[in-house]
């Protein structure tokens, strides 16, 4: 998910978590694609359930958006908030589907949107759009969260409506009530719960702090190892499963905040860079991975050589993600920072 650059607080730990989560999604898709193409089980299937990292993204987004935008609540600066979020989301997304569109146009035109309205839905990430990029469904939920948070910026009293929406979403996910109409699955989804868990964690983090950085990093590493092993053991994707991933995510955030003083060490720099490029990595990896495994990877190679090629593939994906970050994301971030500075000045003048 897209990252919000903060001037006052650099959450390097959360950047690292974002980078690791993106890499988990890459490894999940690599596992599934390799299995689907008959190449066996990648690393004994340890990442077979790692698509759960998307839930980590949702919790992170709730946390970051609240921390970065809480001063805007009730400021009525909704237009500015939405403009910043849309500019952050769409440039990389449109880039990611541009080369997929070109590829499908010549080789599989039947997989392209079949009408002008469908193209519009795909371009604006409308729920149920034709997914030219297999991860774009999650961006629709992200945009819905931005829409809801914008209501708080418009009027803080909308928190009562949002609280009701979260309660209904929870009741529906637990099968306590049945809500069934067009887009009800989307409007009352588990994503609402995960985003709200991120917001709650942001509020709680102002009071809950782990003072010892070394203890914090140890707790994070221990909980992350437990999460990976627990995730590997799961057989069914249920709401309880995603809710527990959300609990793990909240724990990751709290422990990484406590470990923040350690991340000035250069040893963490590669992981921070991975976090910086995580949104590009998330969006760009799947088309490259599919093309490589399905069209380029030779068959009947020794296992050791296949793993070597997979390592090269991940390196290539990271390289192109870095280029996307440099030439698409960073210019967008610079533009957003200018917008944020102007917004803060306007708020100060209003006071």
Structure explained in plain terms:
It contains 13 helices and no strands. Helix 1 crosses helix 11, helix 2 runs parallel beside helix 5 and helix 12 packs antiparallel against helix 13. The C terminus is likely disordered.
Question: How would you describe this structure in keywords?
Answer:
351 residues; mainly alpha; 0% strand; 13 helices; 71% helix; disordered C terminus
Walk me through the topology:
Elements: H1 12-36, H2 53-69, H3 78-107, H4 116-124, H5 137-154, H6 159-173, H7 184-187, H8 190-204, H9 213-233, H10 239-258, H11 269-276, H12 278-296, H13 303-350
The tally of beta strands, per DSSP, is 0
Q: Helix- and strand-based class?
A: mainly alpha
Mean pLDDT score: 91
Q: Please compute the radius of gyration using only Cα atoms.
A: 21 Å
């Amino acid at each position: 998910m897209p990252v919000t650059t903060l001037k006052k607080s650099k959450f390097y730990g959360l950047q690292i978590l974002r980078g690791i989560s993106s890499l988990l999604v890459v490894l999940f898709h690599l596992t599934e694609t390799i299995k689907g193409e008959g190449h066996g089980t990648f690393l004994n299937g340890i990442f077979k359930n790692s698509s759960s990292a998307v839930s980590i993204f949702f919790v992170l987004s709730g946390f970051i958006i609240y921390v970065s935008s809480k001063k805007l609540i009730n400021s009525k600066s909704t237009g500015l908030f939405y403009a910043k979020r849309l500019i952050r989301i769409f440039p990389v997304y449109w880039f990611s589907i541009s080369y997929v569109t070109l590829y499908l146009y010549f080789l599989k035109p039947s997989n392209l949107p079949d009408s002008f309205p469908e193209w519009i839905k795909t371009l604006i990430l409308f729920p149920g759009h034709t997914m030219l990029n297999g991860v774009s469904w999650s961006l629709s939920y992200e945009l819905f969260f931005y829409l809801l948070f914008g209501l708080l910026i418009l009027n803080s009293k909308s928190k009562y409506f949002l609280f009701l929406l979260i309660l209904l979403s929870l009741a529906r996910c637990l099968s306590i009530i049945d809500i069934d109409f067009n887009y009800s699955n989307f409007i009352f989804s588990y994503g609402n719960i995960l985003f709200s868990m991120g917001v709650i964690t942001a509020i709680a983090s102002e009071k809950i702090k782990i003072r010892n950085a070394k203890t914090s990093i140890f707790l994070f590493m221990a909980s992350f190892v437990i999460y990976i092993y627990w995730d590997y053991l799961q057989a069914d994707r249920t709401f309880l499963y995603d809710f527990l991933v959300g609990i793990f995510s909240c724990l990751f955030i709290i422990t990484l905040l406590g470990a923040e003083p350690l991340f000035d060490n250069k040893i963490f720099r590669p992981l921070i860079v991975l976090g910086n490029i995580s949104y590009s990595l998330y969006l760009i990896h799947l088309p490259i991975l599919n093309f490589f495994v399905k069209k380029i990877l030779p068959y009947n190679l020794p296992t050791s050589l296949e793993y070597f090629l997979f390592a090269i593939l991940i390196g290539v994906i990271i390289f192109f993600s870095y280029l996307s970050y440099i030439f698409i994301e960073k210019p967008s971030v610079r533009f957003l920072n200018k917008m944020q500075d102007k917004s803060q000045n306007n708020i100060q003048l209003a006071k």
